[in-house]
Here is the input.
Amino acid sequence: MIRLLAKIPGHVEVACSGGVDSMAVCSFLETMRIPYRPIFFNHGTLTSAEAETFLRERFGDGLIVGHITGRQKKGQSLEEFWRNERNKFFKSRNSIIVTAHHLDDAVETYVWSALHGQPKIPLYHNGLVYRPFMLNRKSEFVSWCKRHKVKWIEDKSNKNTDFTRNFIRRKLMPGVLKVNPGIHKVVAKKVQAAFKEQPW
Here is the structure.
């Protein structure tokens, strides 16, 4: 069962990638009869083009698409460049944007930031970007899509461990879980604590 950190306000926009996480969130909102509009950021790659085609088949003209408008700076990683461009697109929407960030994402962020000396938990909201699904494991999204016959696509770039997030997920997390099999429970408590402390 998909759980929420807090009630989702009506008429939100949902950041969609075509992957199982965001497609589960869209299906969940439809089941709960919460109105939303899907938005997608095209990174200018073949994978993004395939994802946009998939999402247009699913949502038709209702899909809102953003594109890269800036240039990658010298010394800036591709991940950082894409993240900044995506965030710029989100801010331009001037609307509440719901993302499909889940508990596994929160754990990976916690591990990554801890390696840099400052363990952090993703906030429930950062400006107009809201993350109400962080108490759910990714497996719950997969289960939801299978039960409700929701289609999704797999991002081939998720296997590329040259990207930091993928390296953490595929290379580091198996070892982290051996050391602390209960890390998801630990981070879930931290997510809830941070939510209670965060001003609205």
Summary: The helical segments are 20-31, 46-59, 78-93, 103-115, 138-147, 164-179, 183-197. The mean pLDDT is 94. The chain is about 50% helix and 10% strand. The first helix runs from residue 20 to 31.
